[in-house]
């Protein structure tokens, strides 16, 4: 049963993401000057819950000036390093249980 739900949920997330209706966690940091996108998620509450872990990871890495925004969007680039003028694409995977 879990496999069926997992596959159904993954299909819904992929469809929502394709349509630009999926939820993403956008995290901007002042030092380093970066913007990160984590997702996609099926709903706001799942994205908001998962954001806690992303914030903790960034704090451990020494990021400062962290601003979090949970929103519906369809980011083209998942990591934008503004200090370096670079864009990095991490492999996009549907988020289940807070994993990206």
Automatic annotation (TrEMBL):
It comes from Nostoc paludosum FACHB-159. It holds the Pfam family DUF1816. It comes from the Bacteria. This is DUF1816 domain-containing protein. InterPro entries: DUF1816 (IPR014945).
